[in-house]
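User: My instructor asked us to take a sequence, write out its structure as C-alpha cells, and then describe one feature of it. I'm not sure where to start. Here is the sequence I was given:
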Amino acid sequence: MNLTKDLIPQTTRVQPSRQHGHLGGAPLAAGRDTGIDLVRAFCVVVVVLLHALMAGVTVGGAGPAFVNAAEGTAWFTPVTWAVQVMPLFFVVGGFAGSIAFRRLRERGGTSVDFLAGRVHRLLLPAVFTVGAAGLGLAMLADGGVSAELVQTAGFRFGQPLWFLGAFLLCQALVPALSAAHDRAPLGSILGLTAAAVVVDVLRIATGLEGIGFLNLAFVWLTLQQLGFFLADGRLDTLGRRTRAIAGLSAVALLAGSFLTELFSPDLIENLNPPTLALLLVGVAQTALLSLVRPTLTRLSTRPRIAAATGFVTARTMTIYLWHMPVLLAMAGATALLAMDTGIPLPEPSSAAWWLTRPLWLGTAAALTIAAAWALAAGEQRRMPPSTTSVFRVAQAVLAGLAGVALLLVAGTTVFTATAAVGLFVVALRRIRR
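Assistant: Let's start with the prediction itself. The C-alpha cells for your sequence are:
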C-alpha cells in the first residue's frame, strides 16, 4: 500500500450523513477541500512572518546579541490579536486528520498505518533540521563564537519546536479521539475542555506555572476535536446566526478575561503555557471559518493562489522547521556585516528599524521559500512499508515526543541535538515493517 498520498494531511469536503448525522457510515468525497488547504497555508505564512518580525539582532560593546524585538513593546500586544493563528492551525489539523484517517480506513488501512504515516511525515524532516542545527552550533563554538551567543542561538532555534511535539501527540490520538467523537461528540469535546479548565484553575490557584504545561495536551486536543465537528459537517448544520453568536460570545469572554487580568492580552504569551484564552480564540476563529468557507473555496481556486497554496501544503513541516535556522542565519550575517562595516544597527521598534522591516521580512520569506524548495525531500519521501504492531508504533510516538521534550527542557545544544536525532531515528525505525 502506498501510504504517502493517503497520510499526507489531505482535506476533503465531506457532507454529514443524512441518516446518522456524522461520518460513521457516510461515504467520503474524493476531492480536496482547497479552502481548508488555503487556511493551513495562510497559518504557516503568518507564523513565519511573525517570527521574522520578532527576530532582532543588536551589536554592543560585548558583541552581537540575538534578541526578541517585540519584548516589552506596546505595539506587539494588539498585533497578537491578528496573528495568533495556532488555535486555527490545530482546528484545521483536526479537520485534515479526521478526513485522512477515515479515507485510509475505507481503503482497508488501520490505525497503526495512520500513526506510522504521521510519525514518518513529522519526524523525518526533523531529523535533518535538528541534525543541521547541532552541526551549526558545533561550528559556531569551534569558530570562537562566545558560549553565551551559541546558547542563545540554540534557545531561539528550539523555541518553536513545541509545535512539533504537540502536533505529534494530537495526531497520534486522532484514531482514538475520532472514535470517541463518533460515539459521543459533545461528551468527548466537553471532557477535554473540562480537563483544560481544571489545569488552568489549578495553575492560577497555586501559582505554579508548571502545572499549566499539561495544557500542551488538553488545549490543543480540544481544538483538534473542534476540527472533527468541522470535518463531519455538524457545524454547517447550525444556522449562520448561531455560529456568529458563538464566535462573538467567545470574543466577549476573551475581552472580559483581559479586563479582569485573568489572562494576558498578549496572545503569544498565552502559548507558554497554553491557557483557556486560546480555546476562546479557537472558537471565534472556527466560527468565522465556518461562515466564510464558501468564499475561501472560491478564492482558493484562482490559479496563483492555488499554486502558492499547493507549494506550502506540500512543504508545511519543512517550512516550519527551517524558517528559524534561516532567521538565525540572517541575524548572524547582519551582525557580521555591522561589525565589519561599522554601520550601526537600528534599535528594535525605532523608526529606522521599522523602515527596514519590509526588506527584512521580504528577505526572510524569500530565503525560507528557497530552503523549502531545496530541502523538502525528507517531507515528501515515500512512506516505507509500515509495521503492523501497535506496540512498535506506540514506541515510535514516545521516542519522537521524548526527542522534542529533550530539546525544549534541556535546550538545544550539540549534545541534545545529537540525542534528539537519535531518538527520531529510533522512532522512524520502529514504524518500519
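For the description part of your assignment, you could build on this observation: Strands lie at 55-60, 63-68. Try explaining in your own words what that tells you about the chain.
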